[in-house]
Structure formats: structure tokens, C-alpha cells
Amino acid sequence: MTVIIDLVHSFTDYGMQTFSVGLANILGQTAGGGLVYHEGTFPTSSSAYSYYTVELGVYSGGFGGSSEVLTFGIEQGCPDKIELHWFGKYGGAESYVFCGQFITQSKTDSELIDVAQPWNYTAPRANSYDKRVLKTNIQSRKNIEVNTSIPQEDGEYISTLLESPEVYMNIGGQYVAVALEDATISTADNRAVELEVKFTIAFGLKAVSGI
Q1: CATH fold of 79-211, please?
Q2: Residue 198 has pLDDT above 80, yes or no
Q3: What is the DSSP string of 105-128?
Q4: Domain segments of the chain: what residues?
Q5: Which residues of 72-95 are buried (b: 16+ CB within 10 A; e: fewer)?
Q6: 25: closest CA among 14, 35, 11, 12?
Q7: What is the largest CA-CA distance in the chain?
Q8: Is the overall model pTM greater than 0.85, yes or no?
Q9: Where are the alpha helices (DSSP H) in 10-128?
């Protein structure tokens, strides 16, 4: 099935253009809001497809491609997934959906205060259960450890994610700023079909309590 759409960009738009081509931007989309159909319509479900291709070009009675053809695989039956968005090394907006093992952790940081115990010759010594140390400035940080694998051809692309200073995670339709740490990826392996990827998604600190 071929779908040709016009995003109504004129030849005077000489600046950098970004186009959202993820499944969420395609499935069930209808005409309107600057979107014009020249041929075909987008499906409402991806269940009948295993991949789709995207090509940019110019339409003038017929379509003429002027970009490379990008192929996107569709992973069916992936209820556990993480969708990340980032700015690539050339400034463009990029995105990728990971399926795999995700371990959610909570790391707590704090400071300790030593408490002097009251005592004199007319009073008994401090009890063993009296507080001698207190915890203050308690902060909690949520982390998600990601262990997954990706196709060989995606290795170089995902390396730009791990190098990006600005990353967002889609959580319930909200884009939450995160940072990636402890990242490891092999960009090529002549003996493997897929490449292993490991990294940690770090969320911002949340203050819990203090004195």
C-alpha cells in the first residue's frame, strides 16, 4: 500500500524541517491541519504490517523522491516498551522505541548528623534506643536499567542517542527530560545478527525530607 501526503511546505521553507514518522503519528491520521492526501490513506492498525518505508520528495501531479528511503520495522506484541526522543548531532529530532528488559530502581541520597547525648552526674546515661544519628537532606532518584538488543543497521543511529545531551522519555503522552548514563553499545559485530545495548535512564532528584 502506498500513501502520498502533502504537509504543505512551500519552496520558501529553506530552514531545517522535521517530520514525525513514528507509528503514533501515522495510524489513523486523517486530512486536515495542513495534511493533504494525494494517494491512499493511513491504516488504523499496524497488525497487518511488519514494516513501513518513508521517503520525502516533491509532488507535482506525481511524486518525485528526493531523499533516501528509510525503513522502519514494526514490533508486534511488545507491551513493555520505552519510547525515547533526542536531538541528534546535527540538531534534528530523533526517536526510537526499545523493547527488552527494564529494571526500575530508586536510589536515595542523604546526609548524616551526629547528635550529642544529654548526660550529667545527676541523670542516667543515655538509653541505647536514643537517637545518636539523624538522616537529613533526603533525596530520591528514579533510575531505569535498560538491557535490550537492536538490529545491526541501527547501531550507529542509536549511538547518537547515547551521545546526546538532551533526551526525553514519552510517559503517558508527556515528554519527560531524562539523562542516559553507563551506556554501552557495539556499533558493529560481524558474528552477531543483533547488537546488545545497555544503559541507565536517570530521572531528576526529588526532595523527600530534611531537617
Answers
A1: Elongation Factor Tu (Ef-tu); domain 3 (2.40.30)
A2: yes
A3: EEEEEEEEEE-PPP--TTSPPPPT
A4: 1-74, 79-211
A5: eeeeeeeeeebebbbbeeeeeebb
A6: 35
A7: 101
A8: no
A9: 23-26
